[in-house]
Amino acid sequence: MAEPFQVLVLNNVSAKGLARLPAERFVAGKDIARPDAVLVRSADMHGMDIPKSVLAIGRAGSGTNNIPVNAMSARGVPVFNAPGANANAVKELVLAGMLMAARNIGGAMCFVVGLDPADPEMEKKVEDGKKTYAGYELAGHTLGVIGLGMIGRLVADMALKMGMNVLGYDPEITVEAAWSLSSKVKKANFVTEVLKHSHFVSLHVPLVEATRHMINAESLTHMKHGAVLLNFSREGVVDEAAVLAALEARKLGSYVCDFPSPKVNGNPHVVALPHLGASTREAEENCATMVADQLRDYLLDGNVVNA
Ligand code: MLT
């Protein structure tokens, strides 16, 4: 039998995924000197010296912007990813983000942590807290979804179920995606239309040249006063310096993002997370399984799905 394929695993990738590579045909680990394939999650491979022995790369996630895809294509090395495998996890965190902003959860939690149970004024302080952190409900508000790929569509669907109105925008929506989208999602023709009419705006676009800083000082002027911007896509889609200025001017109500950006961290109207969208047990297993299957099928049989 031929020598087993050597798979360099660059991050912690779910064991369920690695188990998809049959032990008699694959050796997978962190110390592989001459890899035939690389399995990566978030490690930035730009600038890495990717050995000439590498025949394929698998990204256990949907975005591939941590991989030099063009350089790999020029070498004939396919890059596999796992679109949709973590969409449900991201969708659920977007819901949490909207609720955190609408119900002032972050501020209210800090307020409670700062209370002294022995304080004789405790009861009065709790009453004050109830007023200070009173919020509003999602139902009846409009959510604008920019990007109607797998995640954007799940977010739109969830918002409809929560009793929200949904306005969606995607210039490149596929026919299949358009069919699967509820007719209750109103379609906008321009990003500005979404910004003007939505109280919440959630971004679900990849980071490419056309989307870099798509939310900037100019576009922010179109948003409703006190609106909430949610960025669970990529940091570069938003000009965060402009967002900070809009928050400070109280034009923008809140910014919820899945990146610990130094530009906005510490602002009381920012909820920033350490890129947790895909960090659930289920999503990690789904992504690792999908991408390991693709690597296996490519290396063993030359089958290409999703590269
Ligand atoms: C993705 O592109 O799907 C996410 O960035 C995945 C991750 O958090 O690793």
Automatic annotation (TrEMBL):
It comes from the Bacteria. The keyword Cell membrane does not apply. Coiled coil: none annotated. Its EC number is 1.1.1.399, 1.1.1.95. It catalyses: (2R)-3-phosphoglycerate + NAD(+) = 3-phosphooxypyruvate + NADH + H(+); (R)-2-hydroxyglutarate + NAD(+) = 2-oxoglutarate + NADH + H(+). Pathway: Amino-acid biosynthesis; L-serine biosynthesis; L-serine from 3-phospho-D-glycerate: step 1/3. Keywords: Oxidoreductase. GO terms for molecular function: NAD binding; phosphoglycerate dehydrogenase activity. Belongs to the D-isomer specific 2-hydroxyacid dehydrogenase family. Catalyzes the reversible oxidation of 3-phospho-D-glycerate to 3-phosphonooxypyruvate, the first step of the phosphorylated L-serine biosynthesis pathway. Also catalyzes the reversible oxidation of 2-hydroxyglutarate to 2-oxoglutarate. This is D-3-phosphoglycerate dehydrogenase. It comes from Sulfurisoma sediminicola. The chain holds residues 1 to 307 of 394 of the full protein.
